[in-house]
Amino acid sequence: MTATQDRPAAEIGKDRRRKEDQRLITGRTRWTDNITLPGMLHLAMVRSPFAHAAIASVDVEAAKASPNVVAVLSGKDFGDELGVCINAWPITPDQKTPTHSPMPADRVAFAGEVVAVVVARSAAEARDAAELVDVEYDELPAAIGIKNALKDEVLAHPDLGTNKSALWVFDSAEAGTGSDVEAAIEEARTNGILIEREYRQQRLIPAFMEPRSVVVDPTGEQITMWSATQIPHILRFALAATTGVPESKIRVIAPDVGGGFGGKLQTTPEEWIAWAVARRLSRPVKYTETRSESLMAAHHGRDQVQTLTLAADKDGKVTGFKVHLDADLGAYIAVVGGGVPVLGAFMFNAIYKFPAYRFECQTVLTNTTFTDAYRGAGRPEATYAIERIMDELAAEVGVDPLEIRERNWITHEEFPFMTVAGLEYDTGNYEAATRLAKESFGYDALRAEQKERRDRGDRVQLGIGVSTFTEMCGLAPSRVLGSLDYGAGGWEHASVRMLATGKVEIVTGASAHGQGHETAFSQIVADRLGVPFEDVEVLHGDTQIAHKGLDTYGSRSLVVGGEALVRAVDKVIDKAKHLAAHLLEASEDDLEYNDGRFTVAGTDQGIAIQELSTAAFAAHSYPEDMEPSLDAEATYDPVNFNYPHGTHLCAMEVDTETGAVKMRKYTCCDDIGVIINPLIVAGQVHGGLVQGIAQALWEEAVHDEAGTLVSGSFVDYLLPTAADTISFDVVHTDDPSVCTTNTLGTKGVGEAGTIASTPAVVNAVVDAVRHLGIDDIQMPCTPERVWRAIQGSKAGGATETPPDAAPHFADGEANSAGADGALNQDEGAGQ
Amino acid sequence: MIPVKFDYLAPTSVEEAVSALGEHGDEAKIMAGGQSLLPVLRMRLNAPEVVIDLGGISSLRGIRDDGDAIVIGAMTTHHDVRDHELVHQHALLLSKAAAEVADAQIRHRGTFGGALAHADPAGDLGAPALALGAQFVIAGAAGTRTVEAADFFVDLFETAIGEDEILTEVRVPKHTGWGAHYEKFVRVAHQWPIVAVAATVRGSIDEARVGLTNMGSTPLRASATEEALAGASATEDGVRAAAELAAEGTSPPSDLNGAADYRQHLARVLTGRAVLKAAGA
Predict the structure, then answer these.
(1) Whether the predicted pLDDT of A243 surpasses 60
(2) Which helix (H) or strand (E) holds A729?
(3) Pick from A658, A721, A820: CB nearest B44
(4) I want to staple B171 with a disulfide (CB 3.0 to 4.6 A). Which of A344, A490, B69, B249 is the partner?
(5) Fold of B62-171
(6) Transmembrane ranges (chain A) (predicted)?
(7) Model's pTM, two decimal places?
């Protein structure tokens, strides 16, 4: 009955092509929008064009009369069954949290908020009818921009009385992890070096490839929701908690999901509306957003003002670091909205031995799209701040940026190391990664060329940027998350099903949306269990199949979910051993397990794991003290985060005449522990780098003063393509510092490139023009900003660029409103 | 992204197309490749009742020699303009500019006439067409007429083409042997130009034509620069001095990619570079 293939050589470390790619790349798969159910209705949303307005009236009569429209519902048509959108991470007990209705009946708080939904027999008819919904608004003043909002002159939510949501503080003197930062600053002011900076983390849009889509089928015993989400399990919990439907009556499926980058780590108004409409009408419904809706109303990321004070002695040894963040939450506190900037609290000290540290995070409400996780979530912001300011320190001391880092970093002999932020870094070797990166980059030769170009006064100047990053990832551990008032744990669950034919199904609570779990997890099981790679099937994303799980974000799937899987496989082997001993009539102590086969030591007797699966299925003969099953499951909760690190080096050319910047070389040496699949790692690193580089150079979500998203299409929100990037030089240390808190020795890699690359690029741009008296250029480093910095008119300051969109897509008017209520970009533009 | 419902007509002759336009008037929109029109429809920024697709009119495609000019059919794709031998020989500047339009997929779909009739001042073909003194052949119910480039571009997205007329072909006077360069300044490769300069020169330098992209509501000629270049030698200093005049009379937009004064600075710098490259210096 067993029909399995011969087992090839070891899988871990092998460049396996991803088994999921054929279906994902061709699109012939179960994307949510590809799902069609009998009798399904389609939704179109009516969204507010105003950032802040009272809803005076909603006239739905014309829309209702439109062909094949089944229902038109506004906020006042729903009661409690609509539920609310939750904030699962209140960062302080007194956090001010505005109520977030999926469809408010009285007042909208950002442009793009849903005020009504049209239900029709086709998506086109729903869209046509949505234009006929006549909403009367009384416009209210809008709180736009962090600094404006902090003044509390215009309130995003007048009933809250303030825009300040919460202040979260960590102080090393109070926590006992270090000394008093104010004393260090005073000392530096008189006897050392004090560097004070304000850095801006611009607002970004995750811009995943597959727009968000949701299908709800209320016709079975359980109500089923398919959603393009990263978090089916959390989504199910939140639906149960807020809509009154028992969790046991809810099935959530994340089918194939086309990218997320944190942007689908959300419980969305659109999901809640689809849920309520399907229940109200007892009909299956589908909603798929347009790209314009996605850019406007799916959550944004970053958006902080960072006020930094770095104290050091005259040799550049840091004595204290004080950080104050003002973080823009947007109009509502999204599922982990407030927690994202707080995650940065543990990372501003990075790889360094700082004696004193204080971190404050003030979260701020504004009338803009709500913000939440975006690749790196809190850690890119922290890494940017520290790696930028370490370059400033190097410039102040007058030494190479790598030298200043070496004077401050934790040496490899000092691990495990308790940081000033209270984390225990288990392993790391910053010296080795830096050595290798420098070598591969050709650091000395590029420095020589830089000097030569400077001396010559070349029109094109060369700059070299450094980023020696680390990050905490693998979110988990549950106890730590609990201590931060996060609303859930961080464990992960896995189960292994040994099928009668010898094939293996594994079920993971992680929920892949492009990462390659099916391939990497198959490699792990193939090695651990000794079965062919092709015989392993990975199941995920359906709460009826993967009944327990905490989903995918924070570089957690491999380091937490992979370890749960290893533990479940080990339990299978234990059970199999018991059965093997019984069938071979041997003592368990005499059995050896190799390459999927138990053998009796010193004999040629043995039995394969596949034969044992069949034997357990037949159950004709098994020990009295055993159930006839080899299946097993495990729930794993790590004791610590893990800490990948690396040295990233970037060379940028700056055209001093135009301000144009061009990447010349990018080398990174990441120490990510044991690598399961180098090809997948390369993909994660390359993609991650581009996303971080894009923050440095291209991407910025801009609202005008009225709160309209000006960068509302890919014409104005600049995503790079392959044509805009170079071939990266990606190396890894030969002898990685292996993670000590999981069996496989792995560390997370999903966010590393994004976290590390942004400061490397900006450091390089600034380095190219530092001799002209420039010490900062705001992100993204547009040619205009670089040029203005060189002109000296606004060195490092805000851009003079008006927040207007280019008018390519409108006939004569700048993205003007059609009859559909599309946003009128003219309003308030041209400040 | 679902457009508002519209009727679709696919005429097979210019006469048929003109008559359809006459019938539907301002309720109709011409589709000539669709690379600008379709996004507008899909984003519901415009909702014509009728779309008249010129894609089925084979007489509008192709490039031919016509004595002192080459004639480019309005429905010739950017890709074909870029690669055509006649364009290489007699209007090299158009080939250089066509090569820079958007990306390869759009260049295979989008058309020369469609782009010019759309008259986006950030479009890549207006400035070269203006610099080369192209003539636009426009067909209407009463027959055809020819409009000089200087009169063709009227304003933002507005040309001399009447509501019931169709651009059929563009006559480009031969600039045989002229050097050419299209200097396009973008932040990412697939972007519209923030500023671009189309330069073509005879000799080194006997005569120069310089067109500016996205420096006003229409493509512009850098006339002062052209005059200063005539008879100048193609040295870096000489060309740059002439290029300093390039922003005269321009009124560029201010948007996310740059304020007007920055664009004027770019126009001066890029003009110098474009002319030097065109002159092979």
Answers:
(1) yes
(2) strand A729-732
(3) A820
(4) B69
(5) 3.30.465
(6) 329-352
(7) 0.95
